[in-house]
Amino acid sequence: MIKQVTLSTLLMAALFFGTFVAVAESSGNSNRRHSPEHDAAVKKCNSDYNLMVKDANRLKGMERKEALAKAKADHKQCLAAVPQP
Q: Is residue 75's pLDDT more than 70?
């Protein structure tokens, strides 16, 4: 009986400790900084996108819809080409 209680306690402690370590490791990765090139490229993509949306909002009907879709597609493509840190 005592052997079973001790074994259960040790197993629960190991499980708790393993979970605690996994959570601590995963939260530590969020503090990575991006490279200056990455930040500049993202900033350029976002400013280009904002200008395209601003221009598209001046249009009417299907032209506006197509221009917004093109802006969104171009923005997605631009962000995919950004150098990773």
A: yes
Say which residues have a Cβ less than 8 Å from residue 84's Cβ, sequence separation at least 6. Answer: 38
Residues 23 and 7 reside in one and the same domain: yes
Both 54 and 67 in a single domain?
A: yes
pLDDT tens-digit readout, 15-47: 777 777 777 666 655 557 889 999 999 999 999
Within this chain, do residues 24 and 48 fall inside the same structural domain, yes or no?
no
The pTM assigned to this predicted structure is: 0.61
CB atoms within 10 A of CB 45: 19
Within this chain, do residues 48 and 22 fall inside the same structural domain, yes or no?
Answer: no
Per DSSP, the three-state class of 34 is: coil
